[in-house]
Amino acid sequence: xxxxxxxxxxxxxxxxxxxxxxxxxxxxxxxxxxxxxxxxxxxxxxxxxxxxxxxxxxxxxxxxxxxxxxxxxxxxxxxxxxxxxxxxxxxxxxxxxxxxxxxxxxxxxxxxxxxxxxxxxxxxxxxxxxxxxxxxxxxxxxxxxxxxxxxxxxxxxxxxxxxxxxxxxxxxxxxxxxxxxxxxxxxxxxxxxxxxx
Amino acid sequence: xxxxxxxxxxxxxxxxxxxxxxxxxxxxxxxxxxxxxxxxxxxxxxxxxxxxxxxxxxxxxxxxxxxxxxxxxxxxxxxxxxxxxxxxxxxxxxxxxxxxxxxxxxxxxxxxxxxxxxxxxxxxxxxxxxxxxxxxxxxxxxxxxxxxxxxxxxxxxxxxxxxxxxxxxxxxxxxxxxxxxxxxxxxxxxxxxxxxx
DNA sequence: ACTATTTATTGATCCAAATCAATTTAATTA
DNA sequence: TAATTAAATTGATTTGGATCAATAAATAGT
Lengths: 197, 197
Description:
Two copies of one chain form a homodimer.
Chain A: H1 5-16, H2 23-32, E1 34-38, E2 43-45, E3 53-59, E4 61-68, E5 71-79, E6 83-84, H3 87-92, E7 99-102, E8 106-112, H4 113-120, H5 124-150, H6 153-163, H7 165-170, H8 173-180, H9 184-195
Antiparallel strand pairs in A: 1-8, 2-7, 3-6, 3-8, 4-5, 4-7
Helix pairs in contact in A: 8-9
Chain A binds a DNA duplex through residues 152-153, 172-174, 182-189, 191-192.
């Protein structure tokens, strides 16, 4: 598979959820898209470098994580039809602190922030897209913070089960534990408890 | 004091940091601004209502917090020249989960999201402002999450000391503790430790 | 299908921070 | 400025989850 019509249509459809998309602007956007395939285990990018790409996931799963004192902490997971960008790095123009690794065989499109900025220049529609996407990641983040602060691990896991079934179904337990900021042992015990009740 | 030239100029100056601001657009924006003064202890808004205002702080301090099981958890503090909006509520059009209270005598300007949306319609400059502000709160949030996850309370407090001196200097210790997600006793012990070394 | 390796489970121990309780210090208010 | 209330400190105790350790189950590789 590559930049087939079918794949590109999925991007178009997603963008159309946010803004009106005149055909000629879409064609310009489309021309910026590049295809990328990763095998399970391969890296999209590693911390320490500046990255300037915005990704759209076609299939598979990307895990992002921070590394500190030799320990990994998972930051997020991105599945098919999710956008992903090392936002903080791009916005602040600092080296990226996230590592991004495929934990399934994964296919993506990407464009660069420079290309996106070019789109922003086209007018308020594209600025609006930028605003809406920024607002969306903000909202996600907001939710996660609240859940981290107000719920104990068990409640947090239950919420995840409801709100992000893909996380629970497709991600290994020790990765999930790291995402929830608990040890794998604790997550195992939580699941055990939930099973027996 | 009220909508004096001097106060309004501070808003203009701040917006100009983000976008070019033609005089006639500024005049329109300015006409949307309303003045509000609160005494220490008074509330800007309470959880459970929909709020649609975006605030610019002229002086004083606003504390925002969540309430769960009768316990307060401080979410943020806003001082002079800070923007504040119950972003999540405005963006999702859900009832606000935050309470906002003046913890010093406080003066603010506000405009409604409807007014801001009207500004957005003027063109890409204003959409850009919206985007940049959304990106800014996102970055703030991102930083805080990272600090919460990777640092123990003592390290977290030291970072706050460096990065947000206004928090440490002007906010009561038990409010700060709640913001840092630790008990007041723990914060007191941290400060004690730092004093004796 | 068998082996090696990785991941998940279960139990025992430990520890950082929470909670509980009492006292001192600081801030309000009469 | 004295009296009252609120906030901060300090000590004792408890606890939820981490860490350590050993085993079982699952996955990947041959």
